[in-house]
Model the fold of this input.
Amino acid sequence: MARSELGPHCVVWGGIGAILSQVLFTNLFGATKFQASAIGLLLGISIYWILEQVRWEIIRALLTYRDWMYDQKSSRTKAWGMLLSLLMPKKNKLFALQEYLPKYPLPRLEDTCKRTLSMVKPLVHEKEYAAIEESIDELKQNEGPKLQKILEERYKTEENWLSELWDKYVYLAGRSPIPVASNFCLLGDLKFKQHTPVSHQLSQAANHIRYAMEYKERVETGTLRNMMIQNIVPICCHRYNYVCSTTRIPQEDVDDLKTFRGTKHIVVFCKGSMYRLDMYSIDVAGNESLLTPREIQSKLEDIVKDASKRKAAAGTSQIVNPSIFTTTDRTRWAKIRKSMLKDEENATSLNVVETSAFCVALDNDEEPKRIWITFYN
Done:
């Protein structure tokens, strides 16, 4: 938590209380030095705890102010910024400030309808707009108030009234193929001729894999710094939980989103084959440590050699792995996956892919060679 940064101050307050109590309680009430010190220590810690509670409640209240986004130069915004920067800890770990962030706002039904019409108007003809306007009026008179009430109840009970609905009905319910129609996360197209001094595909890949794993560790342990705007305003970092080790499992109606925290392997795609690569080694003392870039590169070289042999052995036949099925619609892929799971070896292989931290594809085309790292399986 962010409060832990101020922990040493608690000891200071306790010490100050103990010193003052020795003077006051010993002289006024005849208490022994030990009794006065104990009372002072408890008093100092109590005062510190109360001040901390007040401080964080003030921060919570300040973070509900939204005009800083629209009226940055006003005196009110400047005073707000000065007070918030004074109270906000200078170092905040990831997720440390989540509980103090304001809830995602729920607009009134009237505002939602007005904004919808203003957004649609430039995009349609007058006749179409009139029909949409009529539909909006019907919504306000009939289903709208009931639906608004449901959202208001969600607003009271949920941290974010929208996120679960968005994930489930807008994203996971989509039936389009992910590679074609979904904006999945990846670390891009690295053309090595443009990256100096290292231009070797596998050494580049090894470095990126190593630092991606370090980043994953920092997210899972919460040691990554919390995102802040101008080092003052914290941003919600909940979605960091889904950066790595997260898989969208195909289902016939609505997909499942699963996260496997603490996973210690990745999957490497090379020349049509898939390989599991464990990212940790254990020394003679039993201590576990993340592989170095050089160790990762050595393992990648072994993978490329083996993939080349498999490719040569296959000859003109094409090696096909299950990733090809992600290019079809989600319902069809769900049925194929269900059929594949009946085979024990297929089930094991799918589990390795779906629980991996992320996937790495080593492009084997002509120069310039590329790496594709997908954090979202």
Q: What stands out?
A: The first strand starts at residue 228 and ends at 229. Strands lie at 228-229, 233-234, 246-249, 256-259, 265-270, 273-278, 280-282, 288-290, 359-362, 371-374. Residues 187-197 have pLDDT under 50 and may be disordered.
